[in-house]
Amino acid sequence: MATLDMSTILLEAYQLADEINESQEVKEYLKAKENLDNDPEAQKMIQEFYKANDRFEEAKRFGNFHPDYKKAKEQALALEKKIHEYPSVHAYLEAEKRLDQLLHQVSLIIARSVSKSVKVPGND
Predict the structure, then answer these.
(1) What integer pLDDT is reported at residue 63 of this predicted model?
(2) Distance between CA atoms of residues 95 and 28, nearest Å
(3) What's the pTM?
(4) How many Å apart are CA 38 and CA 32, to the nearest integer?
(5) CB 55 within 8 A of CB 76
(6) Which Gene3D superfamilies match (predicted)?
(7) Which of the 8 DSSP states describes residue 38?
């Protein structure tokens, strides 16, 4: 078996990346991202969540002693749940999860072909 040099390996990695970019998972992810980015209601909810989450993070610094801790936490959690259920956000998160699973599987295959002990970042 011939030994490959680094440039050959990198070239093949770029070719694999090109093939992944042609996959259904990437196409669905990009479409879902575009739909989300162009959904004014979703963007408004996301901004509201960021503001609520900032209030919660500020309150969290003081823990239960902060007068608005419980209220800020409940608001952030409620908005997060509402956002995740919104159609364009839900579609985006599902497409992102499928793409992440594909990329994780590719990483796992490559790593395991080298050694069972090579660490592969989790896809959680």
Answers:
(1) 78
(2) 6
(3) 0.83
(4) 10
(5) yes
(6) YheA/YmcA-like
(7) T
